[in-house]
Write a structure and sequence with these properties.
Its EC number is 2.7.7.14. This protein has 129 residues and is an alpha/beta fold. The protein has helices at 39-50, 62-68, 76-84, 102-107, 120-125, and strands spanning 27-32, 54-59, 91-94, 112-113. Helices cover 31% and strands 14% of the residues.
Amino acid sequence: MNTTGKDAGTNVGATACSPEKRRRTIRVWCDGCYDMVHYGHSNQLRQAKAMGDYLIVGVHTDGEISQHKGPPVFTQDERYKMVRAIKWVDEIVEGAPYVTTLETLDKYTSDFCVHGGEFAEILEWVGRF
């Protein structure tokens, strides 16, 4: 996969998740703090969107971020607006739990979770990572 330059990652997920191979809408869950949104966040969400049809992005509250990482720079309302403005995002979940669980995926009828490795083990075990 090309990860640099003008066409960086434009073909991500095109083979395994191509629309021709699907019979229904594939819903993808991705969550995070998204404090001080930057190119890496946008690129992560672009790649997540390429893995399905509909991208749901959970954004953590100020309280969750403070508890796990320290105080955020931007307020949760500012972060909700920033993430909502990213063109690959179809829906945001305000106040998403810090730990992604199967219950969260089921609540938002998500088929897959795109996330960093810290929560991968359980989701991989059930085939949803």
